Amino acid sequence: MLKEIIELHSLPVRILHWTQVFIIITLIICGFYIHYPGLLNIPFSTIKNIKGVFNFLLIINSSLYIYYSIISKHYLELIFSFRDIRFIPVFFKYIFFLKDEPGYYGKYNPGQKATYTFWFLLILVQIFTGLTLFYPETFGFFVKLLGGLNRIRITHYFATWLFVFTIPIHLYLAITEDPAKLQSIFTGYARR
Ligand code: HEM
What we know:
Layout: E1 5-7, H1 11-35, H2 44-71, H3 75-78, H4 88-95, H5 110-134, H6 140-145, H7 149-177, H8 179-187, E2 189-191
Antiparallel strand pairs: 1-2
């Protein structure tokens, strides 16, 4: 039987997604190196410069991602809303193999939506705390409010671990959802 081929991820989404993956992985590696200097046999200043460039690439790519998500209304599929709460019990039964059918919940399941929403907030935290570390005088009020630069540095570091812990959740949910859908983040298309 011939299957219908549908476009699941537009070209801008695929480019923005893979650029974001590359930027965030680079920032995690460089960030951990800054926290634990000596982790790699590379001069500290080189890593700091690479991180400096990627910090601003993250701001640019995230802004483009947000802009595109708004104009294409893609954000409606990405962001977890109150309406998604009702799908959670069926979704949990499905991922723990207690149910064969995932139930209907739109393009992304509630777990994927929760991860994307959490990452969106986490990226804002990283950009905000990162800019404060860069320009402590400009963000002086914020530094005072949060109890000093060291606390901001610890928040930035802790948020990095939250990224590291949630990446496997994203991969698990993407891989177990549907192999046909999984290939579409590379090719854009899936067979239905
Ligand atoms: C996903 C995004 C990011 C990750 C995973 C990340 C990770 C990290 C980590 C782990 C550190 C080491 C913190 C420590 O000293 O314990 C760090 C340092 C730092 N980050 Fe980020 N970061 C991100 C985004 C940003 C952004 C967007 C900016 C600025 C616009 C930024 C600016 C800085 C600065 C200024 C430092 C301190 C570097 C130093 O001590 O010389 N970061 N980052």
